[in-house]
Amino acid sequence: MNLKAVSSSFKQQGIQFLADPQWIIPSIIAPFLFTVVALYMYSGVGDIDSPVVLTAVLGGGVLGMWGNMLFASGFTITYDRYNGTIEPIMLTPTHLIDVITGRSIWNTLIGLLNAVLVFVSAELIFGVGVSVAEPLFFFPMLIMTLFSLASIGLMLSALFVLTRASFVVMTILEFPIYVFSGALFPVSVLGGLAPISYVLAPSWGVDALKTTAVHGHESMTEFGIAFSLAMMLFLMLVYIAAAYILFRVIERNIRESGTLVRY
Amino acid sequence: MGLLFIPHCDSDPMAVPECPIIVEHLSKTFKARRRSGLPDKKAVDDISFSVKKGEIFGLLGPNGAGKTTTIKMLSTLLIPDSGTVKILGMDVTVSGNEKEIRKRINLVSGGERGLYYRLTGRQNLKFFSNLYNIDKKKQDGLIDDLLRTVELSDAADVRVEDYSRGMKQRMHIARALVNDPEILYLDEPTIGLDPEIARDVRILIRRLADSGTTILLTTHYMHEAEELCGRIMIISKGRSAGYGTVAELKETVRDTNIIEIITNDDPHHAVVKISGDVSYSNTERSGGRYCTRIQLKDKADILPRLNTIFSEYGIRKIGYDEPTLEDIYLSLVSEDES
Known about the structure:
A: mainly alpha; B: alpha/beta; Rossmann fold; six-stranded mixed beta sheet
């Protein structure tokens, strides 16, 4: 891995992000809307300070982070295709995945900003008390969940290299995480489809987040939290390994087919 | 009909090869999209050539002839279907070689795309120099040198979106020089540039070659190819239509005559009348007059007949002329197309 390329891609993504106002939509407006939707969905369940509402805010936050991550992963490749910069990148000895990794790290930080925005808007606009029960567990778990989303984004970005219909793919891929991550409702309601959520790293994070955030929520023991963290780490490594393999296969494939620069 | 001349080249990868580029029987076919109903497109069909160290080699041909596909195969962006491509002694088809090759080559494409518009010129160069893993301590000095070379020092900290077309093209060249490439592929580097900037780019290309960089150039401008290139390959429909020095290529039309006729009016109908006797003809309007260049199929003297046919268009000048590279190009391409 070329660490200079990773760090340079991180900076480049940051400069482009700040220079382009359209990023405000997925990074600020979308997470805010997710919070609003989540709060209205759960407004009938209990009063505004109930743990259920805080759970809803967390769910909205996770979905906001995912939407941003997916959009950023897809857009970064699409932009390079459209802009004609994909060829100069491919022409260098650096693997494309190193460039995407740097950009994904930036996107992860923006995801963190999303989460903060969700909490702040819930607190300031809707008056939801966002006091975290176990901050020592909660915040590392939040960051890990975020990285787990980024690792899925990294894996999917290989597919975005392959397809020109990245915006369609992005839209399609947004919903499975809504359903299977347990962000908005418990995975148990999925019945026979619940096992799908076990292969999604964020699902493990979401449960642990709820446990560590909400006072009196006892759905998981400390062992359960540690196990969730371990599963999330394991799945992240699987995703990253899969991303590396996919990128190598796809790079070879596009060099054979000559489809890299079609837009 | 092309001259096939491949100089003896040392292909030992450990040595600095005499010919950094060796291409033998190279072919590439693009598969048509499923359900498009179109046939597969053979973009490059059995071409062979080699380029010596420090040489500027020209690849000429009409749009869609296979020039860019060839350059992409030589720069590892595409994998050939068949044939051999050795770059600096390394086979491009061997998996893993592409990384080593990419460290030592670079490519400039003509056109507006290929730079990050929201980044400044300096930020673009910094980004790409990191992708080439260039030592951080060397980067600042290198980038300043490159900006000076392409005369963009004053615009170094201006966003590329505010650059003119010519500035962007010079930035492309600077970007392609960040890794100090031993081989530089230039795909129509002066397209769309005004004559003054195009001349500056040509001077820069010549300087790079003089410093030992091997250059493969594609261009539609014949004067540019004639001015810069030691040897030229003309390709048409993916095949080699001619190969050699400009003098060698001129030899291929020595058995025919070139006639230039300058008229006041458009002699289109006259050209149609004589189409059976000519290999190709080309009429261009310049300064309110029409200049028609005709290549005859043989040395038959049809000047009196042409005088009669063209007289109604107001002949200002008629006579035999020496073949130019453009005549050879048009002759070879039209012959191949027919």
